[in-house]
Design brief:
heterodimer, A: 270 residues, mainly alpha, 11 helices, 3% strand, flat, B: 274 residues, alpha/beta, Rossmann fold, 6-stranded mixed beta sheet, 36% helix, globular, Cobalt/nickel transport system ATP-binding protein (chain B), ATPase-coupled transmembrane transporter activity (chain B)
Amino acid sequence: MSGVLARTVETITGALRAVFAAERIADADGFLQRRDPRVALCALAALALGVVLTRTLGVALCFAALTAALARLSAVPLRRLFARSAVVPLVSALVVLPQAVLLPGDALLRVAGLAVTDAGVAYVLLFTVRVGVGVALLSLLVLTTPFSAVVAALRDLRVPVALVWVVAVTYRYLFLFFDELQRLVLARNSRTTGETGLRGGWRDARRIAGTFFLRTLDRGERVGRGMRARGGARPPSPYGRSRRLDAGDCALLALAGVAVVASGVMRWSP
Amino acid sequence: MEPVIDARGLTHAYPDGTTALRDVDVTIRRGERVAVVGANGSGKSTLQLALGGLVAPSAGEVTYFGETTDAEAVRERLGVLLQDPDDYLFNTTVREDIEYGPAQLGLPRERAERRVAALADELGLTDLLERPPFRLSGGEKQRAAVASVLAFDPDVLLLDEPFGAVDAHYRARIRDLVTAHDGTVVLFTPSLDAVPEIAERVVVVDRDGTLAADAPARDVLTDRDLLSDVGLRPPTTVRLFAGLVDDDAIPLTVAAARDLLDDARSALDPQRRR
């Protein structure tokens, strides 16, 4: 089958598989890869909290620089980090864009009779940078820490078992389901000749959606059995990769702690 | 020998109305090597899932180790390998998948790591341990799934077509690992060629989900009428030697067939006889 469905499926599946490719970076020898997963999780979450708290563009840019430095130290290509983190802030920028003309302030320019204010532009920029840096920090965690280590760290940090379970199972099923969809499309392609056109593509999409739903349910049930066969009915308990904290762990925790406290103080100081 | 799995009156119907099992009684005893054979769609896999406590039968009961009917209570003692390795491999790397069972079932990490390394070496997975399972070939996935179930060293192995898409070399390795397993083995398969090397007893599931036979391997594998009735072909060696020698003397394995042919050649060749 050609057309929009096949392209969409291939794009989504490719993006998901790129997450698996991130495991290779997680195996590289870099600053964050050498950190205890609990420390990496706490520190990057704290930095994300710090950047969300700030109301100053300069501070947000400092967090951006810190994120870039951590990526550099961890052998994560900045271009790749940017590519992985760009979509969410761009969408959020579109959502808050009207604020550029709605917020009162000095007019910078006029567009279609509307005044774009300095305060409005500053707000849109700050919002976008905050979201972008937050997403980049979480991407950095995913890129530098194997998923099983993140799950083990969540357990070590006494995060409620139900939440850890939901995170672990969602992550695993997501890939399985898109693999299932790709198999369906491949099976269809192998028996389709010629162009189906837009209308034909949508007709196929309708049919495949129903089959996909049923196969997803079936696959989910079978994978569930596969998990139960190996103790999956019990709470997730991957082997922890955590160890004694070293100087690098302490330094990262201290840095994150100082950053989040400073950000909070700057926000709430009179 | 004490029963490790004792199933009484197992009946199972799927929601679409298909009855996969009908009033099945089967007892597996400690240390036994049993093959459950049947044609496609006869209910072998459903029987495996029911014996492994992964499907609640519509009727009947399974008792484990003479102690409990709750399979989860003895999960670490039951090694259930499902038919499709894709149902088994869902972690981000092969290593995590093989470690999944030992971790969930509470094996110490050091012991699990040793076990993973040994199995990976035996099944040619050492270089694949850090790869995502979806990037493996069909045979590699099957080997990883077999390693996953052997990793926590269960007392009872319930293996549904463990040879899948595996090539001849690793088929022999898997067979050796299974025969060397210090416990009970139940093999579910529609192909009878692998049965004589593993099983001493054969349970035959008919196409309507009832049990057609439960007898020593030789009795079942040389009963061409029975096998034909249930839609199965006898092992290659049986088809080859049937009618040439008495049923009692039919070799069930290739090695036994070679021995028989060697003996025959010696008998015919005067020089060798001398």
